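User: Is it possible to get a 3D structure for a protein together with its bound compound? The compound here is heme C. I've pasted both below.
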Amino acid sequence: MKRSLVIAAVALVVGAITVSSGNSSAESFSPYVDDKGNISIPKDFRNWQFLGSWGVATDEDNKVGSKGFHNVFTQPETLSAFRKTGKFPDGAVLVKELLKAKTESMTTGEISYATETEGWFIMIKDAEGRFKDNKLWGDGWGWALFKSDNPGKTVTEDYKTDCLTCHVPARKDDWVYLRGYPGLKK
Ligand code: HEC
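Assistant: Yes, that's possible. Here is the predicted structure of the complex:
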């Protein structure tokens, strides 16, 4: 009896130490960012909260529908935090999956639907400016594009030239195109 109590106490202390050291390391900022600021694709993002889809209109003459979709996901906790505060919390992840699309006559009409994945655009909120020397980080976010033929390595070299200029119209909303995400509206 006494012995089992001691074991329980030791287990508690060890548990507490593990938890506190985990929190203080750079890795605890985000499971998708290493201590140098390298970004990786969240494997389970399709189980996250779906925010919305952008349909890319086909540019071929005499054709209708979309030639691609951009589907955007975030963590469920980011959605609830944004609804409360109107801001993206530290560690918030936005994944924009690029998909090809096909258009067919279906019983509902001319319908476009998503087919293969071409890549993933990822933004990770950094409210503290952690990675000052890393060119994937700045203006409150980490930024990276991955193509589906090499999902382990980003093709982004410098977010200022590769990403930011195109997001200027959304600057007042923390660089995010909020109009496409009905679930984020208060
Ligand atoms: C050619 C312009 C352009 C470039 C370059 C660009 N973006 Fe975007 N991005 C947009 C637009 C416009 C949207 C919303 C509409 C859409 O998807 O077409 C968007 C949406 C996003 C979204 C979904 C959240 C949001 O802001 O609405 C993410 C994530 C994203 N971009 C990340 C990036 C990253 C990371 C880079 C650089 C690697 C990048 N983008 C480069 C124009 C661009």
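The first strand starts at residue 49 and ends at 57. The pocket of heme C is lined by residues 54, 70, 72, 94, 96, 121-123, 143-145, 156, 162-163, 166-167, 170, 176-177 (CB under 6 Å).
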